[in-house]
Amino acid sequence: MFTYSLLNLAVMGVLVAIMLRWRAALPLRPLFVTVVALLFLTLVFDALIIYFDIVAYDPALMLPVRIINIPPEDFAYAIVAAVFMPYLSVLLNKNKVGDSSAYASQKNK
After folding, report:
1. pLDDT 10s digit of each residue in the chain, 109 long?
2. CB contact set of 37 (below 8 Å; sequence gap of 6+)
3. Is CB count within 10 Å lower at the N or C end of the chain?
4. Helix (H, G, I), strand (E, B), or coil: what is residue 70?
């Protein structure tokens, strides 16, 4: 049974439902660059921590496919972080896209 994959799908399903319910506009180019950068960093550092046996995975809980020596489930975490964290920030109005007034007001304090 692919427990990690099912967990990833469940979490992604909840996040997509949240994103569809509360829409927020995000600029696509910075989002794309962030996703690519995090996927590259995941590729490099996951390969290292798996190679040096810092972390081990139970093969029975994962997909039988590997990218180098990395389970594809690990890339899902990077994608979720890269997409949902900026979305959540915009959603909570902590950092409006294209609005520098939040930065300016903190700088003047």
Report:
1. 568 788 888 888 888 888 887 777 778 898 899 999 999 999 999 999 989 999 887 888 888 888 888 888 888 888 888 888 888 888 886 545 555 554 445 555 5
2. 82
3. C
4. strand
Length of the chain: 109
CB environment 11-41: b (16+ within 10 A), e (fewer): eeeeeeeebeeeeeeeeeeeeeebbeebbee
Structural domain containing residue 80: 3-107
Q: Look at the chain and report how many structural domains it folds into.
A: 1
Cβ-based neighbours of 6, under 8 Å, separated by 6 or more: none
